[in-house]
Amino acid sequence: MPKKLELLTGNEVVVKAALLAGADFFAGYPITPSTEIMSGWAKLAARDPRLEFLQTEDETSAGMAVIGALLAGKKAWTVTAGVGHVLIQDPLVLAETLQLPFVMYVGQRGGPSTGTVIYSQQELNLARYGGNSEGLRVVYAPSNIQELFEITQKAFNTAWRYRFPTIILGDGYLTKTLSPVDTEKVLPREKAEAYFLNGDIKNWRNCFSREDELAEHLNKLFAKYASASRQIVEAEKFVTTDAKVVIFAWGTVGFAAETAVVNLRKVGKKVGLFRPITMRPFDDKGAIKAVKKAEKILIAESSGGQFGRIVREILAQATEAEFVRLYKPAEGITAEEIEEKVKEVYK
Amino acid sequence: MIEPRRPQSVNSKSKPSNFCPGCGYGVILKILGQVIDEMEIAPRTVFSVDIGCNLLAWDYYELDTVQTHHGRVTPLAVGYKRANKDGLMIGVAGDGGLYAIGLQSFLHAAHRDDAVTIIGVNNTLYAMTGGQLGPTTLPHQVTDSSPEGKFTYDKPILGPELAQGVANREAYLARASLLNISQMKQMLKKAIERQIAGHFSFVEILSFCPINWKTNARESIEMVELMEKTFKVGVINE
């Protein structure tokens, strides 16, 4: 038994975890379902002079202010969702090219456009490859509130250790729900340092004059990303070794899928789950290994196939198994629905 | 070759700079360099540029410098300054960057009285992209996207005056002109002093763009004289 469980919302958990990771600067703009993270931080900053808070005029400014603060050595971060996630791609690609530890929590909401305000899994492409870039960022996907607590801390560490923008991709179900959390699981902190005014003059640009100059810069970034990826990549493989049906699901749906697998195993069905924890980089090898015995691969997600396209591309040459889709764009998926679908295709 | 005398804060290795012949940026940046030297603030100054011709100044100074995106110099400067209140932040952007794509950041920084110094270079058009209409294009001015003087505004945006509407009383807002360099230098100094005092400061500078104006030396000066009729040079808020 953990020593201490606290009853918290996911939004409160994100603030708590960021603080434990050493975050000391926040700039953001309100947007459902993530607003409470911003206002939660504001309440702390109002009482603690070591914490900076800035409510900006929009999300591009929030991201740019985060970049300014990172240059000064603050563990700066922001939170957004939906169309704010679109706007923030502008500063995010600047952080990619400058190799800055930009940390951002995203609460996915339904789209396109203003869509719905609480839940979807439709911001996966945006989080992975949203900018005019090559996706040189890390994307974590917590599936429950305990994981949210630990992954938010980890995101700051990953960002500062490897100097890639790092996104925690959640949703409103995850952060508006009240759940017991073991808040004693505190990770050791990565150190922050100032980029500017540290005695070593830097002239930084993001605009290159020649193709070969940019190519040289990019090749370095790609090599660095590839090597960091090996340390960063994470996935949960849950009873996949003998599984005839392997479910592929992530985030909140991944949590439901886990319950489904437990229930299906109880009635003797050989079902397993592959749940990526980092959506980028992606555990390709783990995914291929997980489907060794699979006859059916069930992809469950609350989008029109953003996750499915990643999975099918990776597994295309690796398996003869049939792909089954449970795609519900911007709608929640319960464990029961997943169980039903598995029973339907299980032979 | 005899090396020209440059301010100490200027990075000699990146010279000659890439600005077009006759461009106003060379003069503006040199004078700003003199101000930084005279105020002895180089060790605590960070410089930031936008998109547009000013991005060519990314390695102009021996100062920590970051080049941002179009219109984003202000929010980045604001974030930096709030994270390092002992540091000084000087940002440069063009009229498009400040009064079009970056207008809301510019106005909100003024509104919050963020202690940064922003320099806005007004040459009445988007110079880097080949001279299109901008928020400061004069009525009937011919540009790449206002052929025959069409599609221009009756009233160009007056940046410092606009900012005055939302700025703190203690903000420093002024307009300088390259036709009066000593006044411009005084204004830049005042602006940085006001940042040190903890307030927002902004200097718009009326500048040359002979390449896009398609003007010779005399005509370029006449163009700035014409601009001065619309954009009143002087201190707007002190």
Structure description:
The complex is a heterodimer of chains A (347) and B (238). Chain A has 347 residues and is α/β, with parallel strands linked by helices. Chain A contains 13 helices and 15 strands. In chain A, 43% of the residues lie in helices and 20% in strands. With 238 residues, chain B is an alpha/beta fold. Chain B has a single domain (17-237), classed as Thiamin diphosphate (ThDP)-binding fold, Pyr/PP domains (Rossmann fold). Helix content of chain B is 35%, strand content 18%. Chain B is built from 8 helices and 9 strands. Chain B has a 7-stranded mixed sheet with strand order 2-1-3-4-8-7-9, with helices on both faces. In chain B, strand 5 and strand 6 form a beta hairpin. In chain B, helix 1 (25-39) packs across helix 6 (181-196) and helix 3 (95-101) packs across helix 4 (103-112). The longest helix of chain B has 16 residues, at 181-196. The radius of gyration of chain B is 17 Å and the shape is globular. Chain A binds chain B through residues 25, 27, 52, 54, 56-58, 60-62, 64-69, 71-74, 76, 90-91, 94, 98, 194-197, 201-207, and chain B through 11, 14, 43-44, 46, 51, 55, 58-59, 61-69, 72, 74-84, 87, 89, 104-105, 108.
Write the layout of secondary structure elements.
The complex is a heterodimer of chains A (347) and B (238).
Chain A: E1 5-9, H1 10-20, E2 25-28, H2 35-47, E3 52-55, H3 59-71, E4 76-80, H4 82-87, H5 89-98, E5 103-108, H6 124-129, E6 138-140, H7 145-162, E7 166-171, H8 172-176, E8 178-182, E9 203-204, H9 211-232, E10 235-238, E11 245-248, H10 251-266, E12 271-276, E13 278-280, H11 284-290, E14 296-301, H12 306-315, E15 322-327, H13 335-345
Chain B: H1 25-39, E1 45-49, E2 64-67, H2 73-83, E3 88-94, H3 95-101, H4 103-112, E4 117-122, E5 125-126, E6 132-133, H5 159-164, E7 172-177, H6 181-196, E8 201-206, H7 210-213, H8 217-230, E9 234-237
Parallel strand pairs in B: 1-2, 1-3, 3-4, 4-8, 7-8
Antiparallel strand pairs in B: 5-6, 7-9
Helix pairs in contact in B: 1-6, 3-4
